[in-house]
Amino acid sequence: MAETLRTYDIDSKQCEFYKRMYQNQDLKFVLMMKRKYDKLDNVKMTMNKALSLMDSFVDPSDPDLDEPNSIHAYQTAERIRKMYPDNKEYQIIGLIHDLGKVLFTFDEPDYAVVGDTFVVGCKLPKSIVYYDFIKEHSDKNNTLNGIYKEGCGLDNLYLSYGHDEYLYQVLKQNKDKHKLSEKYWDIIRYHSFYPWHTESEYSQFMNYKDYDTLKNVLEFNQFDLYSKEDDIHISNDVKKYYDNLLNEFFSGDLQW
């Protein structure tokens, strides 16, 4: 049930995953990944194709899912459609929010694709998942603000790299090929930023825009998280509905 979601046991594959993540995700790594992927010169494909790739991906960081990520995409979108039947834009966000995980097709390690995100370049908060297992990290004993200034805004922070940032860049740099507004890009960019939106960390960096983003992400999180309890059978009618929706909101191939 809901109270058992996001339960992280010590003796689990999730624990081993986060150990790898904290060993590798630092400012140097994040800057390297952004140089590598912000160019979007890997492949051209439609959003429909990206969704189909999720049929063969199971998130190793998620304690609540053992099913292909495509099922979770439809579950989230359907939860949103029940609450907002006329907001097709929001439904699309539910469907595509994890499609940055196509990074796995480029042979990236799991810790560069999935997992809760956190800020690099400043002190690690103790509320992050498996904090007690962080033995060595350049930010463990950093100052609270590190390289950043208070009030600088979330958009000026470097977060651990993964599918959120990658898909955000895909939407931002292909904005002439889709109809999604920036409000929804930001939901995608920060939906895995649990230390911020759920644990209230990093609030000293927020600016006026970030308070609206926080409200939007918190609402979206209810659809994202609790949809994992829903039926995993996705009917052909549901799939057809979202195929048509993707074709309505996206035009042709995108740069990835």
Can you give a write-up of this model?
Pfam families: MIOX (PF05153). It comes from viral metagenome. The protein is mostly helical and 256 residues long. The protein has helices spanning 13-24, 27-37, 47-53, 69-83, 88-96, 163-173, 182-190, 194-197, 208-226, 236-249; strands at residues 44-45, 254-255. The mean pLDDT is 91. The protein has ten helices and two strands; from the N terminus they run H-H-E-H-H-H-H-H-H-H-H-E. The protein has a two-stranded antiparallel sheet with strand order 1-2. The protein is 43% helix and 2% strand. The radius of gyration is 18 Å and the shape is globular. The protein has one domain.
Main traits of this protein?
two-stranded antiparallel ribbon
In short:
The chain is 43% helix and 2% strand.
Gap from first CA to last CA: 36 Å
State the assembly state of the protein chains: single chain
Q: Give the structural class.
A: mainly alpha
The largest sheet, given as strand count, sense and whether it forms a barrel, is: 2 strands, antiparallel
Strand order of the largest sheet: 1-2
Tally of contiguous helical segments: 10
Question: What is the number of beta strands?
Answer: 2
H/E topology pattern: HHEHHHHHHHHE
Q: List the uncertain runs.
A: none
The count of domains is 1
The coarse silhouette is: globular
Radius of gyration: 18 Å
> Average pLDDT across residues?
91
- The percentage of residues in β strands lies in under 5%
